[in-house]
């Protein structure tokens, strides 16, 4: 059994920075990451960097004439560019840790006891030991409890939607927070029709009222529909679209969407 002074579970920003620092001090350190597609953590792979890459491409695409097929082509090219960028950054993050002297394990970590970790992968299982174990597993999107939502084939999260190369014709976003509005903006710029469902009565409640009003006005001028004081009752799948039953202040409405993005928050990723 290999013994380390520190084992860090998770390749996110805090974990990789701490691991590199420890190794630079001559401390025997290992880092465990369950997916090679997550080297570098959330920001590099499914959040800040890829979303800004798509946002930049969407701005270049905004207002350009062309058929729907041409819009889809530009969107698919933007996703490819996003994938190229994140793959490059994953490689650089991995190389940086290895060069610092950190041992990187690929696999899912689970506790055997207070000082031993079982690492499970498709190839093998291995137990390592450490005096100190740091949990750095970040957070994952959470789906709200809406009838049919977890069974729908048309539901995506902010992490999964960015990998889809087909541009949605009508994107419905459940949640009017920062993530939901960012997606609304750049998918609208790519040419999709976008509807945002906001449960509360106050738009961007944590922001200055004048600033929130300016953001809302800008989005609506771009053609984004914002349903305020609305609640999703249930989601039903048809062959090529989801039927989203929404209770609004003006009565019940059914939205037809080929993509439903659930952007309703995140929760700690500590189940394993």
Outline the structure in words.
The chain is of the alpha/beta class and 272 residues long. The protein contains 7 helices and 16 strands. Strand 10 (193-197), helix 7 (209-221) and strand 11 form a beta-alpha-beta unit. The radius of gyration is 22 Å and the shape is elongated.
Summarize the topology.
Layout: E1 2-9, H1 13-24, E2 29-33, H2 42-46, H3 48-61, H4 68-100, E3 103-106, E4 108-111, E5 116-120, E6 125-135, E7 139-141, E8 155-156, H5 158-161, E9 170-174, H6 178-190, E10 193-197, H7 209-221, E11 225-227, E12 231-237, E13 242-248, E14 251-257, E15 259-262, E16 266-268
Parallel strand pairs: 1-2, 1-6, 2-3, 8-15, 9-10, 9-15, 10-11
Antiparallel strand pairs: 4-5, 5-6, 7-16, 12-13, 13-14
Helix pairs in contact: 1-4, 3-4, 3-6
What are the salient characteristics of this protein?
FAD/NAD(P)-binding domain; 2 domains; single chain
Order of helices and strands: EHEHHHEEEEEEHEHEHEEEEEE
The CATH architecture name of the largest domain reads 3-Layer(bba) Sandwich
Q: Percent helix among the residues?
A: 25-40%
How many domain regions? 2
Which structural class is indicated by helix and strand composition? alpha/beta
Task: Quote the beta fraction.
Answer: 25-35%
In this structure, how is the largest beta sheet organized?
A: 6 strands, mixed
Distance between the termini: 21 Å
Strand arrangement in the largest pleated sheet: 3-2-1-6-5-4
CATH level-four homologous superfamily name of the largest domain? FAD/NAD(P)-binding domain
Mean pLDDT: 96
Summed up, the helix count is: 7
Under the CATH scheme, which class of the largest domain? Answer: Alpha Beta
- The low-confidence runs, each spanning 5 or more residues with pLDDT under 50, are none
CATH topology of the largest domain: FAD/NAD(P)-binding domain
Shape, principal axes of CA atoms:
elongated
Q: Provide the gyration radius in Å.
A: 22 Å
Instruction: Count the beta strands.
Output: 16
